Amino acid sequence: MPFTSESFTIGELMAARISREVRDETYVGTGAASPVPMSGVLLAQYSTAPDMIYVAIGSDDPALSPISGKETFDIAQRGKLDLFFLGGAQMDGHGNINLTTIGDHDKPDVRLPGAAGSGMLYFMTQRIILFRMEHTPRVFVEDVDFITTPGTSDERVHRPGGPTMLITNLCVMQFLKEKKGFELESVHPGVTVEEVVENTGFEFGIPSNIPETDAPTAEQLSILRSSVKEKISVAYPGFVENGGFGE
Amino acid sequence: MIGADFLGLHPEWKVIEDPYSPGEDIVLVPATKPDFALIHAYKADKTGNVLAPSYDDRMVAQASDKVIVTVEEIVDYDLAEDPRGGYVIPWPFVSTVVLSPNASHPGAMEPAYDVDHNHLNEYIAAAKSPESYKEYLNKYIIGHSEAEYQEMVLAVSH
To answer: Residue range A35-55: average pLDDT?
Structure first.
């Protein structure tokens, strides 16, 4: 993982930003292949949200997740899951996610693993943070090839939740439900607004004066590199071995 | 589900107004009624009770007309009395039990064995073209018995 400076990695920067979204005394979940969201949620658990209940779908480790994946889905269906994280092979400017097929659905170029419950979670989790470690035009497209689950729904659909934020290796965007689109919040250190525009296939709002994403504090880095790293190294050994955390 | 492209692929799914929430729509999906279920599980006993890794297996078994269960081992005690380490599928839901150790290969049967990553990588590489996929099938599947398959993959992975 590339270092943005000598002091922290992109993953640590994203984890610190994610941790700010975690509310204490709520259920917060992550799915498969989510080491950065997991790092952010655990960072919050060790700092600002000690009584948050963290549920990791797909983890067999009771120290990480006190309830099963099925029960996590049940909790989401009851509207009690406050925050969850979803990615997608493709995502578009309306928050639509594609986890199904690239190309023509009947004769796809790539058959992806599928929705795996994300459709329900996208509707019923109070807040969804979208994330990708690859911010490129092939991921962030004008229109997804297949809508596995839509970003917004009309008033005839029961949908208490949906996307609120997008975080990538380049930037943070807010999702504005009323505009059905994204607005740039911050760019990571060393990244320009132009780079984000060039690497995004859809239109998004750009307010004047885009700040830099807040760097993780020394205390956050210390927690990430000790308690969080210890748990991530069990759940995602590859992420740690490939330098997901700085030293 | 509403707003997803799956709806267009399934004419049998119906969108109706939710009778419990007037003004909102819901999707009706007909129940799946499989003719056969193929389930791999840890253990079976002499009665046909099965110890499976997930409660979902029991639901699949209950839903299906014929249920064929392959197992890692057959035990000589009553699994209904001692279901430790798994979830019991009771014998009325089971049609046939087949002793077939390592049958999840190259998938995992935790905690007995993990995914065979080397074999999966071979499969993924082979799946890239119809020609190499056919080679894979000829090497491991077509014309080979289960015992021959297991001999081949165990020789490589252990």
So the answer is: 96
In a domain, A58, yes or no: yes
ipTM above 0.95, yes or no: no
pTM for the complete prediction? 0.87
Span A60-73, pLDDT tens digits: 677 778 888 888 99
Q: Which residues pair with A91 in a beta bridge?
A: A97, A140
Q: Which domain holds residue A195?
A: 10-238
Q: How many CB pairs under 8 A join A and B?
A: 36
Taking the CA of residue B128 and the nearest CA in chain A, the distance in Å comes to 11
CA atoms of A149 and B143, how far apart (whole Å): 42
| pLDDT of residue A177 exceeding 80 | yes
Q: Which structural domain range is residue B65 located in?
A: 36-99
Contacts of B19 by beta carbon, 8 Å cutoff, 6+ apart:
none
Q: Are residues B83 and B66 in the same domain?
A: yes
Number of domains in chain B: 3
Are A157 and B3 an interchain contact pair (Cβ–Cβ within 8 Å)? yes
What is the domain count for chain A?
1
